[in-house]
Amino acid sequence: MKPKEIYNGVYLVASSDMTDAKDCCVYLLDLGELVLIDAGAGNSAAAIVRNVESLGLDPDRISTIVLTHCHIDHVGGAAAIRDRTGARIVMHELDAVPVEAGDQRLTAAHWYGVRFQPLPVDLKFSGHSETLSVGGRDLVLLHTPGHTPGSLSAYLDKDGKRVLFGQDIHGPFLADFGANMSHWQRSMEELLALKADILCEGHFGIYQPNKKLAAYIERYLDEYGD
Protein backbone atom coordinates (compact mmCIF):
# COMPACT_ATOMS: atom_id res chain seq x y z
CA MET A 1 0.00 0.00 0.00
CA LYS A 2 1.32 3.43 -0.97
CA PRO A 3 0.63 6.89 0.46
CA LYS A 4 -2.39 8.46 -1.19
CA GLU A 5 -4.31 11.69 -1.45
CA ILE A 6 -7.71 11.45 0.21
CA TYR A 7 -8.93 14.92 -0.70
CA ASN A 8 -7.31 18.15 -1.86
CA GLY A 9 -4.10 18.35 0.20
CA VAL A 10 -5.13 15.64 2.70
CA TYR A 11 -3.08 12.44 2.54
CA LEU A 12 -2.76 9.07 4.24
CA VAL A 13 0.98 8.54 4.86
CA ALA A 14 1.08 5.60 7.29
CA SER A 15 -1.05 2.71 8.48
CA SER A 16 -0.71 -0.86 9.65
CA ASP A 17 -0.86 -1.95 5.98
CA MET A 18 1.52 0.72 4.70
CA THR A 19 4.35 1.19 7.18
CA ASP A 20 4.30 -1.04 10.28
CA ALA A 21 1.74 -3.44 11.76
CA LYS A 22 1.79 -1.46 15.02
CA ASP A 23 0.96 1.88 13.38
CA CYS A 24 -2.28 3.79 13.49
CA CYS A 25 -3.39 5.68 10.40
CA VAL A 26 -1.28 8.83 10.05
CA TYR A 27 -2.65 11.72 8.03
CA LEU A 28 -0.84 14.65 6.43
CA LEU A 29 -2.43 18.02 5.71
CA ASP A 30 -0.88 20.45 3.22
CA LEU A 31 -1.99 23.86 4.43
CA GLY A 32 1.00 25.74 3.05
CA GLU A 33 2.75 24.40 6.11
CA LEU A 34 2.39 20.66 6.67
CA VAL A 35 0.53 19.13 9.61
CA LEU A 36 0.72 15.50 10.74
CA ILE A 37 -2.22 13.96 12.55
CA ASP A 38 -0.53 11.33 14.75
CA ALA A 39 2.88 9.76 14.22
CA GLY A 40 2.69 5.97 14.35
CA ALA A 41 4.27 3.63 16.88
CA GLY A 42 7.89 4.67 16.33
CA ASN A 43 9.70 2.18 14.14
CA SER A 44 8.25 3.71 10.99
CA ALA A 45 9.18 7.36 11.58
CA ALA A 46 11.75 7.31 8.78
CA ALA A 47 9.26 5.60 6.47
CA ILE A 48 6.67 8.30 7.19
CA VAL A 49 9.21 10.96 6.23
CA ARG A 50 9.99 9.07 3.01
CA ASN A 51 6.28 8.79 2.24
CA VAL A 52 5.91 12.55 2.59
CA GLU A 53 8.80 12.97 0.15
CA SER A 54 7.23 10.47 -2.26
CA LEU A 55 4.22 12.79 -2.53
CA GLY A 56 6.52 15.56 -3.76
CA LEU A 57 6.35 17.39 -0.44
CA ASP A 58 9.23 18.59 1.73
CA PRO A 59 9.17 17.03 5.23
CA ASP A 60 10.96 20.10 6.55
CA ARG A 61 7.66 21.94 6.03
CA ILE A 62 6.03 19.84 8.77
CA SER A 63 5.39 22.54 11.36
CA THR A 64 2.88 20.76 13.60
CA ILE A 65 2.25 17.24 14.86
CA VAL A 66 -1.20 16.83 16.42
CA LEU A 67 -1.35 13.78 18.68
CA THR A 68 -4.93 12.68 19.11
CA HIS A 69 -4.27 10.73 22.31
CA CYS A 70 -1.52 9.23 24.39
CA HIS A 71 -1.29 5.65 23.09
CA ILE A 72 2.02 4.47 21.70
CA ASP A 73 0.68 3.56 18.24
CA HIS A 74 -0.17 7.25 17.81
CA VAL A 75 2.67 9.00 19.65
CA GLY A 76 5.67 6.68 19.31
CA GLY A 77 7.10 8.31 16.19
CA ALA A 78 6.60 11.92 17.27
CA ALA A 79 10.03 12.45 18.85
CA ALA A 80 11.96 11.27 15.80
CA ILE A 81 9.82 13.29 13.38
CA ARG A 82 10.08 16.37 15.60
CA ASP A 83 13.86 15.97 15.76
CA ARG A 84 13.96 15.69 11.96
CA THR A 85 11.66 18.63 11.21
CA GLY A 86 11.53 20.89 14.28
CA ALA A 87 7.74 20.57 14.38
CA ARG A 88 5.76 21.56 17.46
CA ILE A 89 3.76 18.84 19.21
CA VAL A 90 0.14 19.52 20.15
CA MET A 91 -2.10 17.53 22.52
CA HIS A 92 -4.93 17.96 24.98
CA GLU A 93 -3.41 18.58 28.40
CA LEU A 94 -5.00 15.49 29.99
CA ASP A 95 -3.27 13.05 27.65
CA ALA A 96 -0.10 15.13 27.57
CA VAL A 97 0.52 14.15 31.19
CA PRO A 98 1.41 10.46 30.56
CA VAL A 99 3.29 11.39 27.37
CA GLU A 100 5.49 13.92 29.13
CA ALA A 101 6.03 11.49 32.01
CA GLY A 102 6.87 8.53 29.78
CA ASP A 103 4.17 6.48 31.53
CA GLN A 104 4.60 2.95 30.18
CA ARG A 105 1.13 1.84 31.25
CA LEU A 106 -1.06 4.76 30.19
CA THR A 107 0.72 5.06 26.84
CA ALA A 108 0.16 1.31 26.34
CA ALA A 109 3.87 0.95 25.58
CA HIS A 110 3.95 -2.15 27.76
CA TRP A 111 1.37 -3.76 25.45
CA TYR A 112 3.78 -3.35 22.55
CA GLY A 113 6.86 -4.45 24.44
CA VAL A 114 8.67 -1.15 23.90
CA ARG A 115 9.99 1.65 26.09
CA PHE A 116 8.46 5.06 25.59
CA GLN A 117 10.74 7.93 26.54
CA PRO A 118 9.21 11.09 28.05
CA LEU A 119 8.17 13.47 25.28
CA PRO A 120 7.74 17.22 25.85
CA VAL A 121 4.52 18.64 24.41
CA ASP A 122 4.81 22.18 23.05
CA LEU A 123 1.15 23.18 23.02
CA LYS A 124 -1.35 21.73 25.49
CA PHE A 125 -4.91 22.93 25.16
CA SER A 126 -7.19 22.70 28.15
CA GLY A 127 -10.67 23.71 27.11
CA HIS A 128 -13.28 22.10 24.93
CA SER A 129 -11.82 23.40 21.69
CA GLU A 130 -8.78 25.11 20.25
CA THR A 131 -8.29 26.58 16.80
CA LEU A 132 -4.85 26.29 15.26
CA SER A 133 -4.04 28.72 12.47
CA VAL A 134 -1.70 26.97 10.06
CA GLY A 135 -0.75 28.55 6.77
CA GLY A 136 -3.71 30.90 7.03
CA ARG A 137 -6.21 28.06 7.52
CA ASP A 138 -8.04 27.00 10.67
CA LEU A 139 -7.67 23.49 12.04
CA VAL A 140 -10.18 23.03 14.86
CA LEU A 141 -9.27 20.69 17.72
CA LEU A 142 -12.07 19.29 19.89
CA HIS A 143 -11.74 17.56 23.23
CA THR A 144 -13.58 14.28 22.63
CA PRO A 145 -12.92 12.14 25.72
CA GLY A 146 -14.02 8.54 26.06
CA HIS A 147 -11.30 6.31 24.64
CA THR A 148 -8.89 8.20 26.92
CA PRO A 149 -9.47 11.26 29.14
CA GLY A 150 -7.63 13.59 26.76
CA SER A 151 -8.63 12.20 23.38
CA LEU A 152 -9.11 14.86 20.74
CA SER A 153 -10.57 15.05 17.27
CA ALA A 154 -9.81 17.64 14.60
CA TYR A 155 -11.62 19.02 11.61
CA LEU A 156 -10.78 21.19 8.64
CA ASP A 157 -13.09 23.01 6.25
CA LYS A 158 -11.39 22.99 2.86
CA ASP A 159 -12.67 23.67 -0.63
CA GLY A 160 -16.29 23.17 0.30
CA LYS A 161 -15.93 20.00 2.35
CA ARG A 162 -15.44 19.28 6.05
CA VAL A 163 -12.76 16.70 6.78
CA LEU A 164 -12.89 15.12 10.24
CA PHE A 165 -10.02 13.33 11.94
CA GLY A 166 -11.73 11.17 14.55
CA GLN A 167 -9.18 8.71 15.77
CA ASP A 168 -10.08 5.45 17.55
CA ILE A 169 -13.81 6.00 17.48
CA HIS A 170 -14.10 2.24 17.80
CA GLY A 171 -12.23 2.01 21.13
CA PRO A 172 -11.17 -0.14 22.87
CA PHE A 173 -12.65 1.15 26.09
CA LEU A 174 -10.54 -0.05 29.00
CA ALA A 175 -10.76 1.20 32.57
CA ASP A 176 -6.97 0.89 32.88
CA PHE A 177 -6.64 3.64 30.27
CA GLY A 178 -9.25 5.91 31.84
CA ALA A 179 -11.99 5.11 29.34
CA ASN A 180 -15.42 6.55 30.09
CA MET A 181 -18.38 5.38 28.05
CA SER A 182 -20.75 8.22 28.90
CA HIS A 183 -18.07 10.74 27.88
CA TRP A 184 -17.47 8.76 24.70
CA GLN A 185 -21.16 8.73 23.82
CA ARG A 186 -21.37 12.52 24.15
CA SER A 187 -18.21 12.87 22.08
CA MET A 188 -19.64 10.75 19.29
CA GLU A 189 -22.87 12.73 19.27
CA GLU A 190 -20.81 15.89 18.91
CA LEU A 191 -18.88 14.43 15.99
CA LEU A 192 -22.12 13.45 14.26
CA ALA A 193 -23.41 17.00 14.73
CA LEU A 194 -20.45 18.35 12.74
CA LYS A 195 -22.01 16.91 9.56
CA ALA A 196 -18.55 16.22 8.16
CA ASP A 197 -18.16 15.00 4.59
CA ILE A 198 -15.10 12.80 5.14
CA LEU A 199 -13.97 10.86 8.22
CA CYS A 200 -10.30 9.92 8.57
CA GLU A 201 -10.38 7.29 11.31
CA GLY A 202 -7.52 6.05 13.47
CA HIS A 203 -7.26 2.45 12.28
CA PHE A 204 -10.00 1.72 9.77
CA GLY A 205 -9.33 4.35 7.14
CA ILE A 206 -11.64 6.68 5.26
CA TYR A 207 -15.42 7.00 5.32
CA GLN A 208 -17.28 9.25 2.89
CA PRO A 209 -19.74 10.77 2.14
CA ASN A 210 -21.52 11.89 5.30
CA LYS A 211 -24.04 9.03 5.09
CA LYS A 212 -21.28 6.42 5.42
CA LEU A 213 -19.45 8.44 8.06
CA ALA A 214 -22.59 8.72 10.18
CA ALA A 215 -23.38 5.02 9.76
CA TYR A 216 -19.89 4.11 10.96
CA ILE A 217 -20.20 6.16 14.16
CA GLU A 218 -23.80 5.14 14.79
CA ARG A 219 -22.84 1.48 14.52
CA TYR A 220 -20.59 1.86 17.55
CA LEU A 221 -23.16 3.95 19.40
CA ASP A 222 -25.63 1.14 18.90
CA GLU A 223 -23.09 -1.43 20.05
CA TYR A 224 -21.78 0.38 23.12
CA GLY A 225 -24.44 2.96 23.91
CA ASP A 226 -27.04 2.82 26.65
Summarize the structure.
The protein is an alpha/beta fold. It is built from 7 helices and 13 strands.
How would you portray this structure in words?
The protein has helices at 45-54, 72-75, 78-85, 93-101, 109-112, 181-193, 210-224; strands at residues 4-7, 10-14, 26-31, 33-37, 62-66, 88-92, 123-125, 129-134, 137-143, 152-158, 161-166, 198-201, 206-207. The protein is of the alpha/beta class and 226 residues long. The chain has a single domain (4-224), classed as Metallo-beta-lactamase, Chain A (4-Layer Sandwich), CATH 3.60.15.10. Strand 12 (198-201) and strand 13 form a beta hairpin. Helix 6 packs antiparallel against helix 7. The N and C termini lie far apart (38 Å).
- Major β-sheet profile: 7 strands, mixed
Percent range of helical residues = 25-40%
- Tell me the number of strands: 13
Quaternary class: single chain
Low-pLDDT stretches: none
- Round the mean pLDDT to the nearest integer and report it: 95
The CATH topology assignment is Metallo-beta-lactamase, Chain A
Quick tags:
226 residues, alpha/beta, Metallo-beta-lactamase, Chain A, 7-stranded mixed beta sheet, 6-stranded mixed beta sheet, 7 helices
Topology:
Elements: E1 4-7, E2 10-14, E3 26-31, E4 33-37, H1 45-54, E5 62-66, H2 72-75, H3 78-85, E6 88-92, H4 93-101, H5 109-112, E7 123-125, E8 129-134, E9 137-143, E10 152-158, E11 161-166, H6 181-193, E12 198-201, E13 206-207, H7 210-224
Parallel strand pairs: 4-5, 5-6, 6-7, 11-12
Antiparallel strand pairs: 1-2, 2-3, 3-4, 8-9, 9-10, 10-11, 12-13
Helix pairs in contact: 6-7
